[in-house]
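Okay, can you check this protein?
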Amino acid sequence: MNLNVHSRDGQDTGRTVDLSPAVFDIEPNDHVLWLDVKAIQANGRQGTHKAKERGDVRGGGAKPWRQKGTGRARAGTSRSPLWVGGGTIFGPRPRNYRQRLNKKTKQLARRSALTYKARESAIYVVEDFSLDTPKTREIVNLVAALELAGKKALILTPAYDEALYKSGRNLPKTNVRAAGDVSTRDVLDAQVVIALESAVDVLNRQLGDEPQPAEQ
């Protein structure tokens, strides 16, 4: 599968980039997509919720009144869950929501998400560029030049680029991510994916069948 490469002003450069069939043209696995997104959302939870139960509420050490003869119901403490100001019954406690998926499952989920975007013709490739300083206007102009204004866009860079990241982080419908760090949720949440030319190579190499270069 080949896609035309566009310039920053939206013009066709006359060049194409190859999308690996092993990444962008597989049989999507919806169940794996669900597993990965569920794990991502669960791992984002802090799990610090806590309500004071009977043993955590201050006071209530003395018996409010004697057991018999008052005409009132017997009570052993003013911090009973039945009293105003008492402890909570079965309240939330801190817990760890973390879920783990193996590497191959997460890679399959990302390939499935990218395949869906490719089949929807929602992937656009732009020639590589960089910014010396963060300029939000440059990202706005890029999205407008590709006639994608108003859509939720995911911009993929070959590596973390601080200037590009800061240029897009305050735009409500724009998300800038390094191709190697993009998640399944990032891809599914976007309406369109705008990938720099080198970012496609990173996806092909990381998620495809091509061998990884040996570390020096």
